[in-house]
Amino acid sequence: MTSTNLDISVDCVVFGFDGQEVKVLVIEQRPQVGVSKTQLALPGDLVRVDENLDDAAQRILKELTNLNGLYLHQFKAFGDINRVSDFKDQEWLRAFRTNPEARVVTVAYYSLIPLEKYKPQASSFAGHVEWRSIDSIPDLAFDHNKIIHEGLNALKRDLDAVDLVFELLPEKFTLTQLQTVYEQILDKELDKRNFRKKIKSLGRLKALDEKEKDVDHKPAQLYSTKS
Amino acid sequence: MTSTNLDISVDCVVFGFDGQEVKVLVIEQRPQVGVSKTQLALPGDLVRVDENLDDAAQRILKELTNLNGLYLHQFKAFGDINRVSDFKDQEWLRAFRTNPEARVVTVAYYSLIPLEKYKPQASSFAGHVEWRSIDSIPDLAFDHNKIIHEGLNALKRDLDAVDLVFELLPEKFTLTQLQTVYEQILDKELDKRNFRKKIKSLGRLKALDEKEKDVDHKPAQLYSTKS
DNA sequence: TCAAAAGTGTTGCATCTACACCCATGG
DNA sequence: CCATGGGTGTAGATGCAACACTTTTGA
Questions:
Q1: Full-prediction pTM beyond 0.85?
Q2: Residues in chain A closer than 8 A to B53 (CB atoms)
Q3: Taken in order B91, B93, B95, B101, is the CA torsion positive or negative?
Q4: Closest CB to A81 among B4, B50, B103
Q5: I need a labelling partner for A220 at 20 to 30 A (CA). Which of A70, B93, B140, B161 fits?
Q6: CA nearest to B83 within chain A
């Protein structure tokens, strides 16, 4: 095995919806003696030399957060020379990478999940995992803030693709929840009546024989996706 | 300098329009003694370790085809393990690469140019350059047919972005030429009157005091883009 | 009975589609 | 005068935006 001066990684922007808010999953970079303080980062790691990019993304997400079998949508490669050479990142790299000086090109993926269905758990390689609302993302390691920003742009662009949005929603959901997802991703308010007309005209929804429970107002009709 | 087992390359899908047809630029892989036959391929090469991806794409395109300063739109990374290990490709790699066994992840870009304005010229690293109509692409090296296919999809998706399509057109063009570009990229016929209405409503066109010349039918009005 | 969110229709406007004939030019 | 592509308008359908009140429930 020879050493390398260029590495490929993948980073995953996992969007989650808890019924109220769209959030992004960040992890605490694994801490270690000699590293002064931990940072938050996207789940990501180096791609193995004998591993497809898509497989690497699946593996790494599983290893770091225990999330398995998500749909991962590749959206962009980030390869600026200095994307990992910021002072704040070098200490960590020296502690954990065989070639901390290596340039790293990363291929970024986004994914959508309902929080109630998936429970990410930090592996031993990550301090902990944390959901952060998309409008209060803290400072992250490397260029991960930029990656999230571009991931959101890609998601906005792709949102009309049928069934993409349903990846975020739980099995049973209300129309208000669906609208909330759209509003938060597109970052603008939508008209309730117009929204419902449009959604229903897609013919992808099935009204269930069931209503919301334990709310202190009129309970909403629950829906699931058809077929 | 240590040897590496993983390389990054860029590949460029250059779309060109000659007034009639949308074409893709392919080059002949540089031939050499001991390599039985040449193949056609996209212009592409390894990224230097100290070079941004976007810069590498510019440099490589310049080096191989003498095309300079194009807008390059990154659209996807291709990283299947075996994307360069096909039998037809190995001979060439052994002749030209320091690490012919290395895995290569490529970042793909597309670009649009009017043929009349840019004259690509094969460098010594390329046998020759060739424009191929997008519906008769020959078998290319590596996974380059797939890359073109996905590049076209990205272009379809992006085509509505203002000014993208104008990158393909010469300074002066007719509305029929503009429509032809749309039809070929979207791969469907458009209605002439509806198309013209839509285009004119964009307000991006300026009618020139000039008409087509040397055609054996009614000469068309020439337009350029506004401002 | 109050608060809070659910649910529901209409109208005007803009946009899209389908469609057919005359015009200007060169050969 | 013929062949070729250039150029033009209308009507119907569809889709989008704006807009406010009543209902159901739990507290």
A1: yes
A2: 77, 79-80, 105
A3: negative
A4: B50
A5: A70
A6: A52
Pick the CATH number of A6-158 from 3.90.79.10, 3.40.50.2000, 3.20.20.210, 3.10.580.10: 3.90.79.10
Q: How far apart are CA A182 and CA B209, in angstroms?
A: 48
Contacts of A223 (CB under 8 A, 6+ apart): A172, A173, A174, A175, A178, A205, A206, A207, A208
Buried b (16+ CB within 10 A) or exposed e, A89-121: beebbeeeeeeeebbbbbbbbbbbbbbeebebe
Domain boundaries, chain A: 6-158, 169-225
User: Which residues from the 104-123 window of protein chain A have CB within 7 angstroms of nucleic acid chain D?
Assistant: none
Tens digit of each residue's pLDDT (9 = 90 or more) over B20-35: 999 999 999 877 666 6
**Residue keyed to tokens 């039985």:** B36
pLDDT digits (tens, 9 = 90+) for A163-205: 999 999 999 999 999 999 999 999 999 999 999 999 999 999 9
Residue nearest to nucleotide D15 (CA to C1'): A198
CB contact under 8 A, A77 and B107: yes
In CATH, A169-225 is 1.10.10.10: yes
